[in-house]
Amino acid sequence: MFILSILCAVLALCGGGYYAACLMASLRFLTEPKAGKNFAPPVTILKPVKGAGPESESCFRSHFQLEYPEYQIVFGVAERSDPAVAVIEKLRREFPKVDAQLVFCPEQLGANRKISSLVQILPAAKYEHLVINDADMLVSPEYLTEVMAPFANEKMGFVTCVYRALPSKTIWSKVEALGICSEFMPAVLLARMIEGGVNFGLGATLACTKKALVAMGGFEALLNRLADDYDLGTGIKRSGFATALSPYIPETHAPDYDLHGFWNHQIRWNRTVRDARPAGYAGLIFTFGIFWSLLAMLFSHGALWSSLLFAAVFGMRYLVAIGAGGIVLNDQFLIRDLWLLPLRDAMSMAVWVGSYFGKTVVWRGERFVLSDGTIQSAKADPSE
User: Fold this and answer.
1) Contact 42/77 with Cβ under 8 angstroms?
2) Which of 106, 182, 233, 275 has the greatest CB tally within 10 Å of its CB?
């Protein structure tokens, strides 16, 4: 028992160190100087959408209300019967001065339907600078001004954004939103600090130039990729362009998940990361500080040193949540939902373990098999 308690204590200290590093990376992001805002080239926003939820109209509307000299919005839907069509047409009538188009994308060019739509709406893009973001992103009027600023650097090819989540009513929606601001985004900022820059993209915002997009193989190179946002940033970086993380923080909506929906979404996220960064993902075993400190207390029969270790690690975990989520990401719901943090951490470890038992993911109601970043319909896999 003594050896087990010492082993768990060492792992707990690793977790505490990881929390401290996440907090450092988050605060560093907060204090970085911002790029100037004098560069404002014409921009095309590409928005592939499928379906419409309670928040769709407010999210779409925010893109019609941007304070920017010249921009275009191109929406893409696969079917004319898609509920999003009525919402988009309503907004086009309400904002006739905004250059907004709706393109129908009937062809399924690959397993990734989002990328399939992007391939089909790209020809409608008028401008060299492109911005792609998820359909559920809510932005403020200065969004494009902030995101385009780094492109004043002629070598800049790609800009992405961290984000915060707005929870809905269910407990699992709150748990997911809490995880985004207190776990996922701090890890993203830590990876950026360790790697010395942005080597990936996040679906909250993928801004690039057409030149950079062509250099990495175009959207066609991502047609069967699950982590298309990650791969877009990686591909442009490998093509020799500069990349950056914008200080702008958009918002997304965490759906009203039940436990099953939450689990499926988390498993998809985690298997995507595991597939993209297998070594780093395996290393997450060293980040579950609260779990290991609890085990250290158990195996040491509640020895004073283990209790002090648990208190220190537990406190550091909450410091990360408050520092990264509350101060850096300005999550207005963080304090209200902070009591859910132990549940969030317990589910994170459960999902991490569960992600190793299988290769299937559920995405937009469809089941796929994931292998080496490529997805195919699970029905096409005889092993399933």
Assistant:
1) no
2) 182
Q: Whole-prediction pTM value?
A: 0.89
> Is 186 contained in some domain?
no
pLDDT at residue 381 greater than cutoff 70: no
Sequence-ordered list of residues with C-beta below 8 angstroms from that of 317, at least 6 positions apart, any chain:
19, 289, 290, 341, 345
Alpha helices in the chain (DSSP H): 2-31, 56-64, 84-94, 113-121, 143-148, 171-179, 185-195, 210-215, 228-238, 259-276, 278-282, 289-299, 304-320, 334-337, 341-354
Burial 349-372 (b: 16+ CB within 10 A, else e): bebbeebeeebbbbbeeeebbbee
How far apart are the C-alpha atoms of 333 and 255, rounded to whole Å?
Answer: 15
Quick one: the chain helix, strand, coil %, rounded to 5?
55, 15, 30
CB 84 within 8 A of CB 56: yes
On average, the pLDDT of the chain sits at: 92
Q: Residue 16 belongs to what domain range?
A: 2-28+260-358
CB atoms within 10 A of CB 166: 16
Position 160 in a domain: no
Other C-beta atoms closer than 10 Å to the C-beta of 341 total: 22
Cβ atoms of residues 112 and 230 within 8 Å: no
Closest CA to 97 of 74, 122, 65, 129: 65
What phi and psi values does residue 236 have, to the nearest 5 degrees?
A: -70, -40
Tell me the β-bridge partners of 160.
Answer: 206, 245
Please state, in angstroms and rounded to a whole number, the distance separating the CA atoms of residues 83 and 297. Answer: 53
The CB-side HSE value for 205 (13 A sphere, CA atoms) comes to: 28
Q: What digits encode the pLDDT tens for the residues 285-314? A: 999 999 999 999 999 988 999 999 999 999
User: What letter does residue 33 receive in the DSSP assignment?
Assistant: P
- Calculate the CA 176 to chain-centre distance: 12
Q: In this structure, are residues 328 and 184 in contact, taking their beta carbons and an 8 Å threshold?
A: no
- In this structure, is residue 312 part of a structural domain? yes
**Residue found by looking up tokens 């209300």 in the block:** 65
The conformation of residue 152, written as its DSSP 8-state character, comes to G
Helix (H, G, I), strand (E, B) or coil at 331: coil
Q: Is residue 365 part of a domain?
A: no
Q: Which two tokens stand for residue 356?
A: 């190793």
